[in-house]
């Protein structure tokens, strides 16, 4: 079952249950998937990698918005963003913790023989492929920078 089909089923279930919080998050995912499909004209289904990227983008947007609302003292809007973020994260693969990401990055550095910051692009590319959907790019980048600068 594709993500889009799963989202449609969950939307129906949320409507029946009158779960407005979940419904908001699901509708955001559906809208983002439809937008991604129209941007890539002529495709019927997104690949699972493309779906994960769409979901990660939505989570990142929610985190940034929530942070802004928190600093401005808008707790009502902050709460909405956090709730939507939790719904969206439910469709992402399990996120790795920092120690697991560090272990993967160190193995990539050992495989490639990277020795300094000049090799960051090579390591970053491989890490993004290996950790797709399991860690956000910002965390991966921070870990690579600290590992290569030691």
Give Rg in angstroms.
Answer: 18 Å
Total count of strands:
0
Return the average pLDDT rounded to an integer.
88
Separate helix tally: 7
CATH topology title of the largest domain = Hypothetical Protein Yqey, Chain: A, domain1
CATH superfamily of the largest domain: Uncharacterised protein YqeY/AIM41, N-terminal domain
CATH class of the largest domain: Mainly Alpha
CATH architecture of the largest domain: Orthogonal Bundle
What share of the residues lie within helices?
A: over 70%
Structural class: mainly alpha
Task: Determine the N-to-C terminus distance.
Answer: 45 Å
Percentage of residues in DSSP E strands = under 5%
Biggest beta sheet summary: none
Uncertain runs are none
The tally of structural domains comes to: 2
Order of helices and strands: HHHHHHH
Plain-language structure description:
By secondary structure, this protein is mainly alpha-helical. The longest helix has 24 residues, at 48-71. It has 2 domains: 3-89, Uncharacterised protein YqeY/AIM41, N-terminal domain (Hypothetical Protein Yqey, Chain: A, domain1, Orthogonal Bundle); 98-148, Arc Repressor Mutant, subunit A. It has 7 helices and no strands. Helix content is 75%, strand content 0%.
């Amino acid at each position: 079952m594709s993500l889009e089909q799963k989202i449609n089923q969950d939307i129906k279930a949320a409507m029946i249950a009158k779960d407005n919080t979940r419904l908001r998050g699901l509708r955001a995912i559906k809208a983002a998937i439809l937008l991604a499909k129209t941007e890539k004209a002529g495709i019927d289904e997104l690949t699972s990698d493309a779906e994960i990227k769409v979901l990660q983008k939505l989570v990142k947007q929610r985190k940034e918005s929530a942070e802004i609302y928190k600093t401005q003292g808008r707790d009502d809007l902050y709460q909405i963003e956090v709730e939507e973020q939790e719904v969206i994260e439910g469709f992402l693969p399990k996120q790795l913790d920092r120690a697991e990401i560090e272990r993967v990055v160190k193995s990539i550095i050992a495989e490639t023989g990277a020795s300094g910051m000049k090799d960051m692009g090579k390591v970053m590319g491989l890490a993004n492929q290996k950790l797709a959907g399991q860690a956000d790019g910002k965390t991966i980048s921070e870990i690579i920078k600290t590992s290569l600068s030691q």
